[in-house]
Specification:
The chain is built from twelve helices and eight strands. With 275 residues, it is of the alpha/beta class. The chain folds into two domains: 5-235, Phosphoenolpyruvate-binding domains (TIM Barrel, Alpha-Beta Barrel); 240-274, no CATH class. The structure holds 3-methyl-2-oxobutanoic acid (KIV). 3-methyl-2-oxobutanoate binds at residues 44-45, 83, 113.
Length: 275
Amino acid sequence: MKNNISTFLEAKQKNEKLTMLTAYDYSMAKIMDNSGINGILVGDSLGMVCLGYKDTLSVTMEDMLHHIKAVSRGSENALVVGDMPFMSYQTSVYDAVKNAGRIIQEGGAGAVKLEGGSTVYEQVKVIVKAQIPVMGHIGLTPQSVNMFGGFKIQGKDELKAKDIIEDAKKLEDAGVFSIVLEGIPYKLAKIITETVSVPTIGIGAGKYCDGQILVYQDMLGLFTDFTPKFVKSYGNAGEVIRTAFEDYIKEVKNGIFPSEKHSFNISDDIIKKLY
Ligand code: KIV
């Protein structure tokens, strides 16, 4: 079944959990889509897990579009959400709607995601007014890493927790169809989930969120620079892949690969004429 923003809103009303993963290319998007996932986020985590940057701040609109297009081509049923990179919406309301439009029009995504609460209220309102669905993202928002002084769990004291609740309400008022809650205490995520009418999608925000999202490289052991506490391993694909590479190297060196099965034949009469 094709997922869209109504699927997300209805899931919350029916108390059904939503599932999301990140993807950055066609092949992985296709596997994910076939697994029955509700949504695929082309996150700006692209910068870290695919491009090797230390954070997400260097990711550009062109980087995002390149990958959003590939994921859109591989997704039939999942709702594709394209992340708005750093400085693509903070600069002005005009930039925000223009770049959100590119993610839909050029990238083929069904929705955009951007970070922040009350600070991006106007941007969200204008993008929604342009008929583009927006997913909010609050808590440990990676584009604010320099303001946070590192990737630190947010909302642990009363004032910050209240700010995050206010941010969620502001986003709801601005018209988002869902909100990612990242890196906040699970009891705070529970309050937010009970407060807003749109589904909350948690990452490092505990089990009371309306849905969950993970970066696929994290849950499959493909990104090992660091593993956050909230990541659960669902298989060690990194190990499987490394073993396959080692087997390939061994077989090539020992003349086992390619065998006749993986080669193309020609008649010996023709071969004789080639010498
Ligand atoms: O960029 C990303 O992958 C994200 C998720 C972690 C929510 O924003």
